[in-house]
Amino acid sequence: MSGNSFAYSEQAGGGEATELGQEATSTVSPSGAFGLFSSDLKKNEDLKQMLESNKDSAKLDAMKRIVGMIAKGKNASELFPAVVKNVASKNIEIKKLVYVYLVRYAEEQQDLALLSISTFQRALKDPNQLIRASALRVLSSIRVPIIVPIMMLAIKEASADLSPYVRKNAAHAIQKLYSLDPEQKEMLIEVIEKLLKDKSTLVAGSVVMAFEEVCPDRIDLIHKNYRKLCNLLVDVEEWGQVVIIHMLTRYARTQFVSPWKEDDGLEDNEKNFYESDDEQKEKTDQKKKPYAMDPDHRLLIRNTKPLLQSRNAAVVMAVAQLYWHISPKSEVGIISKSLVRLLRSNREVQYIVLQNIATMSIQRKGMFEPYLKSFYVRSTDPTMIKILKLEILTNLANEANISTLLREFQTYVKSQDKQFAAATIQTIGRCATNISEVTDTCLSGLVCLLSNRDEIVVAESVVVIKKLLQMQPAQHGEIIKHMAKLLDSITVPVARASILWLIGENCERVPKIAPDVLRKMAKSFTNEDDLVKLQILNLGAKLYLTNSKQTKLLTQYILNLGKYDQNYDIRDRTRFIRQLIVPNEKSGALSKYAKKIFLAQKPAPLLESPFKDRDHFQLGTLSHTLNTKAIGYLELSNWPEVAPDPSVRNVEVIELQAKEWTPAGKAKKENPAKKFYSDSEEEEDSSDSSSDSESESGSASGEQDEEGDSSEDSSEDSSSEHRSDSESVSEVGDKRTAKRNSKSKGKSDSEDEEKENEKSKTSDSSSTDSSSVEESSSDSESESESESESESKKVTMVRDYSFFQLRINTFEKVLLIADLEGLNLSTSSSVISVNTPVFVPVKTHVLLHRMSGRGLAAHYFFPRQPCIFGDKMVSIQITLNNTTDRKIENIHIEGKKLPMGMQMHVFNPIESLEPEGSITVSMGIDFCDSTQTASFQLCTKDDCFNVNIQPPVGELLLPVAMSEKDFKKEQGMLTGMNETSTVIIAAPQNFTPSVILQKVVNIANVGVVPSGQDNIYRFAAKTVHSGSLMLVTVELKEGSTAQLIINTERTVIGSVLLRELKPVLSQG
């Protein structure tokens, strides 16, 4: 790709032209080098020719471009025949990329993929683990029933592979095969059982996912692997952690007794304080023995606690639900801080977390009370987040904080978001019903809202007041009179119906007003909503029964109108009321009780949280979010009354090849070593029985040997490669053994050391391994001197063997990394990720002046956050102000005039903006990495105003987090035409780190790259549209000069940014 062609395509301003220019090759004629007139067909023909070439370099280049097309979301399926021919290529790089392509398209092109199935089968024996894994992925992607036996055989072989990466892919293939042919379930369960014994952290998450998909009810498969999974959990990949935690939550609910019994017992003791001694004695006799937590139960709770600090929100949520469902109530509180931390994440994460907090806060208010201010609503929150925060604030409300919350609610009622304002009024009503001390205060506040100019606020207030008055109707006659006067101004049907219902219920308390209201309603009956008509009929019936002198004729008139209404519900209600209140020869016995029926005391409504009935779903699941049982949801079982036998989790002790390890001529004494992952022994306090302790420590040692066929093969096949390593390790072990033998301590001393060792353990698997060996050695020291010599040698052998296994696993990981390094598809680094922007003061730009907009003023700014409307769009916040004394209605955007390729996501129309009102809305514009102007019309109900937004070049970037090494690597690839530089002259005080940082980030939205040199400052970003890197370097020279260097493929943007940065860095 030539630099000139790239620059030209950028200046042309079209995104498509840029892409075509990037994909042009040297084989295209100079006239078509820019790719402006080349068609997709011609490009693909070019790629086909390259794939059929005899040169591996041409094939590799073609495959890189094809995979690049897939990464951009382009369809490359028509190249399948040309690509699949190269599946047998001897070049390892080409083969890797071919398999990447085949995994993507094998399911779509099944017939063509089947032709190469023999090649895939041969690839399963390839020396490279990535090729073996890729071949298995392609096989499992060909979803044709005829190859099920081949897939089954391939999965069985892969499950015993030496590489953990291949075994991981075997676990993934199990789920695909099961969805294709469920009849293979029993054979797949055998493979799952084998893979569950695997000690590699790379495999654990994948095989548990396969277990959850294929046989979630086979809890017996987990028993032997429970402790191992608990100890491996902290080292498993993040998404594997989520799956394992959910599975272990279900397991714990079936295998352990409820830890909440202890808390229940404490509550009973508090209640018994006021009871007589005899009653208390009877209850004490009936109590069961005190609760003692199973050590395995404690192991799970303890090993998941560190994951509350995870950067992955799903992991934190999974641990939180585990603590909520299986830990003692006294320990659940630790999850609250971690959940509140997640509220700083994006809005989707906030929504899920707040839903779960809302459910928790109903039962456990105290957990989240210290973080009350974290749930205050921000103006930038979307409506769904605002309403969830309101729900939580309502749940947390009590006598101590209600005054603070009510002041907060007063602000929320004034919000421009009508749905949120209405929800706030409902919240005030719920607080009034829950806390009797503030009922009158809330009621008077709601009455004040009846004079609000916003009709929706008034309507919602009426509905809530109606519910509150039902609780104490006799005390509020004045409020009812005031609401009756509002009937002339309120138009919302629900509010009008609520007022009529209140007047009808209290018609005897307002005898003068009620008939007059009925008279007014009779006039407008035909124009009313159906809901209001039904309440007018009810009001007429109640007044007929209590004040027939004044209202008899009026009620008959209304009944006649209802008799011929278009709605059949109203006609039916009319006939029913007429027969009930106007007695005649056809009337039944019910007419005698008409007054009791209509004027009976109604029960006050119960204002409950909508999250009250969600607690029967497991927290953090889709079913909990939707409040309905989703497909695939696995319910949590109730705690068993009696705990199942805990010995099922004990692992049998298997001797470590006694003939090899035991010195010749000495008898082997049976003394079981401690478990490989020994954290499970930490919780064995002095109160636990010694028999439990012995059974656990004794049974756990066998886990080192139960690695399965794959790990045995691994140790045998790899022994020759690592002989030198094992010899060096054994020498170290001999030295440690000699040192340990020189000690002459008693049994009590060794026990004290063991306890100290257990306290100092960490969650890291390597430290766990070493501590378990030390514990086993301390056991051996407690024997006599003669026995300790032979035992210490045996323990050293065990340590050498376990350490040897760890070295093999480490070497496998190194091989995997080396293989993955070959998959370098483009110039972008795999460790590059979007970073949070550096805070800078917001720069506001005028979009529409109030004089030009006839009172409507608009300003915009760039919040420097990823746009929620699209990955390629720049986020823009627009603040609209009404500076007039009248309401501005229907503010919206139309008449977009955008350059080719640019796109715009507009804000939803604003129904009305009150006088002196202000509202901030969000929109997104895809500027196609150019500073071209986006022109459009900002319209109201009466006028349209031409406005435009031109972005500063620095706002077309997103900050990137990367290391100094990656920065230098990327910079080395972006030289020549992709590099622009200039010399800056300024005073030395302008070249301090803080000044340079402030000036650069003010101009451009870039991330700071750590630098190991004091005179060089580096910044990195990527363009929003294309994701091209933008690398900025400020290198200080001698004296008062510095060199500013910008490396990027987007040379036009780079040169513009250089021009903007130079004067800023130069000035004082």
Automatic annotation (TrEMBL):
SMART domains given in the database record: AP3B1_C, B2-adapt-app_C
Keywords annotated in UniProt: Cytoplasmic vesicle, Golgi apparatus, Membrane, Phosphoprotein, Protein transport, Transport
Protein name, as recorded: AP-3 complex subunit beta
Primary location: membrane
Region of interest: Disordered: 1-32, 267-290, 664-794
Gene3D superfamilies in the cross-refs: Leucine-rich Repeat Variant (1.25.10.10)
Biased composition (Acidic residues): 679-695, 703-718, 776-789
